[in-house]
Design a protein that fits this description.
The chain is of the alpha+beta class. It has two domains: about 5-90 and about 180-285 and about 485-550, 3-Layer(bba) Sandwich (FAD/NAD(P)-binding domain), CATH 3.50.50.60; about 290-480, Alpha-Beta Complex (Flavocytochrome C3, Chain A, domain 1), CATH 3.90.700.10. Strands 1, 2, 3, 9, 10, 11, 12, 26 and 27 form a nine-stranded mixed beta sheet that branches. A hairpin with a 5-residue loop joins strand 26 and strand 27. Helix 2 (about 60-70) packs parallel to helix 16, helix 4 (about 100-110) runs antiparallel to helix 5 and helix 13 crosses helix 14 (about 430-450). The chain is elongated, with a radius of gyration of 25 Å. It starts with a helix and ends in an 8-residue tail after the last helix. Bound molecules: flavin-adenine dinucleotide. Flavin-adenine dinucleotide binds near residues 96 and 239. Keywords: FAD, Flavoprotein, Oxidoreductase, Signal. Its cofactor is FAD.
Length: about 550
């Protein structure tokens, strides 16, 4: 499939039909319920089942598995992607948290969350997370428990309180990353013959709520563009992931903007609207797991990419052309690197480090591919070969960086003046004279062997840029993995209204309302969040009496 047609395909979304992994839903059922009826209740249901799960990522996987396997319930999963699904959970690094010292971990959550994480939620989380390895073994997952994450020492803020939290968790190390895990769980579901049905190309969902009891009775949605209803006899578990590809939600709720992500393009925060319609309270809406990344600035490829110049001869400037940090030690923890871009300047009434620009020379190009590639050791994200054509957003970075230069993802100027003008064409705040002064100062620091501003170790051989060009630049934004805000829930993963009342038969799990607050502190925490709250939601919902039997 060509790039153009693939992208149109992705944007159109409503294609392909349902795939059946088990046999659960009954098509063409009449309502037949004895519960309250009225205008809110569909006259007939197109489908019915016990538990409806919306979103087929990791949280949807875990809640459906447990609802069916432990709860003996029929499950239907509604997934927005046209085929296969999997969400960010399918294309991530596969790391999940292994709690090693419960007491220390509990204290750590209180410490890094600055008291913002509710303690009953911490206890519920620990109670379930300590079963992770048992479940992983039960469902045939490949993993090893490591003392360090791919990105370094764990947990994220281990150094708080004199480093006493080091060692309170381990993290799973999974060969083949989240792709391995996702496919293993799919295979186990098939092997167990669980009554879980998957429906793809499902969009525009609205929860069907009894206005008197506030109970959720089912879901109205489009399937391949056709209006459908599904009765959820026991309840609905929302697992729609983050809002990484919804500019309005990001600009409204995240602490800084623009924020750019690299993952699953169907994650547009649809669940937020769904729960707002039924009166839920939102929480932790500013939470993200994210470092910094290159944004393509290309509307046809509107996502972030891990990319960097392939030499040590580079420096980073803010929007105005000034350096602001030791580029070799950018600070922040591995999964909170975006904090380094939190700098608001009243002089421009905006964030003056978004975008930042990495400036480099031919050495950064000649050193090898600047970005993540298919076949590379870090192959994960929206370009992986594991994804079918319909879901793959691009094919990974080119070997010689030329495709990305031609597309304008990497800016090139024969002179610094020309490069500065190209940056300015994108962001009018760039001051080309300031950029030239910064360049001259940086070059002098290299000659002197000392960075007098930011204490970066510099040498002329390693770090100095050519005096004659050409020069290159990439734009750096806050961004990479996932947003984590969503509806507030309780220890049963039941969604709450603003007064703290349960909205009966409605659950949330995964990155759609992470329990962590203040900052992302639990390394491997999102996959763990999926496992914890997915299982809790699936188990609790499956344990309910069907509303139509009351
Ligand atoms: C490259 C990368 C690496 C990462 N590595 C790790 C890691 O190692 N460890 C870790 O803990 N976290 C990691 N993360 C973050 C982690 O992957 C996510 O936070 C987590 O997978 C979210 O799981 P989820 O089930 O909530 O959402 P997702 O897995 O994203 O699934 C959400 C699903 O909902 C579907 N959906 C959305 N809207 C609708 C709708 N209206 N109707 C039906 N379906 C809908 C989506 O299509 C998607 O399939 C990484 C993220 C990325 C991008």
């Amino acid at each position: 499939m060509s790039e153009i047609s693939r992208r149109n395909f992705l944007k159109g979304a409503a294609v392909a039909g349902a795939a059946v992994a088990g046999s659960a839903a009954l098509a063409g059922c009449s309502s037949g319920g004895s519960a309250a009826s009225g205008d809110w209740m569909p006259k007939s249901w197109d489908y019915e089942t016990d538990v409806v799960v919306v979103g087929y990522g990791g949280a949807g996987m875990w809640s459906s598995l447990v609802a069916a396997d432990e709860g003996g319930s029929e499950v239907v999963i509604l997934e927005k992607a046209p085929v296969e699904g999997g969400g960010n959970s399918r294309i991530n690094n596969g790391e999940w948290t292994v709690i090693k010292d419960e007491k220390l971990f509990r204290d750590y959550c209180v410490a890094f969350g600055h008291g913002l994480i509710e303690e009953d939620m911490i206890d519920a989380y620990i109670g379930e997370a300590t079963k992770h390895t048992d479940y992983a073994d039960k469902y045939g997952m490949t993993y090893e428990v490591a003392e360090k994450a791919l990105a370094g020492t764990i947990p994220e803020y281990w150094f708080l309180d004199d480093g006493k939290y080091a060692g309170c968790i381990g993290v799973s190390n999974v060969e083949g990353f989240g792709m391995t895990t996702f496919h293993e769980l799919e295979a186990k579901r098939a092997e167990l013959g669980l009554p879980i049905e998957l429906k793809f190309a499902c969009t525009e969902e609205h929860l069907i709520q009894n206005p008197d009891t506030k109970e959720i009775a089912g879901v109205r949605f489009l399937e391949d563009g056709a209006e459908k209803t599904i009765k959820a006899r026991k309840g609905v578990v929302l697992c729609t992931g983050g809002f990484e590809f919804n500019e309005e939600l990001k600009n409204t709720y995240l602490s800084i903007y623009p924020f750019k992500f690299e993952g699953w393009q169907y994650n547009t925060g649809d669940g937020i609207r769904m729960v707002e319609e039924v009166g839920a309270k939102l929480w932790h809406m500013n939470m993200v797991i994210s470092t910094t990344a290159m944004w393509t600035r290309d509307p046809d490829y509107d996502f972030a990419i891990f990319a960097s110049p392939q030499s040590d001869a580079f420096f980073t400037v803010n929007r105005l052309g000034k350096r602001y940090q030791n580029e070799a030690k950018t600070g922040g923890t591995a999964h909170n690197g975006w904090h380094t871009l939190m700098s608001f300047s009243d002089k421009i009434d905006d964030y003056d480090r978004i975008p930042s620009w990495q400036i480099f020379d031919q050495k950064g190009i000649d050193g090898g591919p600047m970005g993540t590639q298919q076949g590379g050791w870090f192959e994960c994200g929206n370009y992986t070969t594991d994804l079918p054509d319909e879901l793959r957003a691009w094919d990974g970075w080119s070997d010689d960086n030329q495709v990305e230069i031609e597309r304008g993802w990497v800016l090139k100027g024969d002179t610094l003046e020309e490069l500065g003008q190209k940056i300015k064409d994108f962001d009018h705040w760039m001051d080309i004279d300031t950029l030239k002064e910064t360049f001259a100062e940086y070059q002098a620091f290299c000659d002197a062997g000392k960075d007098a501003r930011f204490d970066r170790e510099l040498t002329a051989e390693e770090n100095k840029l050519s005096e004659s060009g050409p020069y290159y630049a990439i734009s750096i934004y806050p961004g990479s993995c996932s947003t984590l805000g969503g509806p507030k829930k309780n220890v049963n993963a039941e969604v709450l209204d603003p007064a703290g009342n349960v909205i009966p038969r409605l659950y949330a799990a995964g990155s759609f309302g992470n329990f962590q607050a203040h900052s992302y502190g639990i390394t491997g925490g999102n996959n763990s969040e999926n496992m914890v709250w997915g299982r809790i939601a699936g188990r609790h919902c499956a344990g309910l009496e069907p509303w139509d039997k009351k």
